[in-house]
Amino acid sequence: MTTKTKLKNSSAKAASDTKSGEQASVRGLRASDFDAVIAIDEANVGRARQGFFVTRLDAVKRDPTMFLALGVEDAGALAGFVIARVFRGEFGTAEPVASIDAIGVDAAKQGRGLGSALMSGLEAAMRERGIAEVMSQDLWTGAPLMRFFAANGFELAPRWVLERPLDEPIDF
Predict the structure, then answer these.
(1) Neighbour count for residue 66 (Cβ, 10 Å)
(2) Under 8 Å between Cβ of 29 and 81
């Protein structure tokens, strides 16, 4: 399911505000965050995606202008992350668009506003680069993530994502 949102000038909370009033620090991801990113993601999705993150973080290092990669700290430790790719000219628009590839918050710290702090940080970084729209997609069964996206202003996008297994022959 593809979702998207356009940034609104006044809707973002300060990146440091959490539901409990605690201070959360949003910052750029660092190479030293790699193991924590893998662990947070694995706990949330139920499987290790180390290959995906090796490839993605290598791409971030090679061309940081094409990505936004942020982390949120809680009590001095990485508690969540977001990685978004910047597209220019794709999706039928001439304006740049960010697409969230991966987002996650430590399962023990969810529900405290850290994910929303990450989204506020992402929005601020997008504005700095002149990006006014962000999108993502998830499985139809991904209800918790869809609720998070909805709570952060996302709505269903007016496009269809189509797929077809290549092992099935086409009868022309």
Answers:
(1) 13
(2) yes
Most confident of 20-29, 62-71, 85-94: 62-71
Higher pLDDT, 159 or 30: 30
User: From residue 119, how far is each of 19, 79, 149, 162 by CA, in Å?
Assistant: 14, 14, 9, 27
* Tens-digit pLDDT profile for residues 76-119: 899 999 999 998 877 667 788 898 999 999 999 999 999 999 99
Domains and CATH numbers, the chain: 11-134 (3.40.630.30)
DSSP 120-170: HHHHHHHHHTT--EEEEE--TT-HHHHHHHHHTT-EE-S-------TTSPP
As a whole number of angstroms, the distance between CA 106 and CA 39 comes to 8
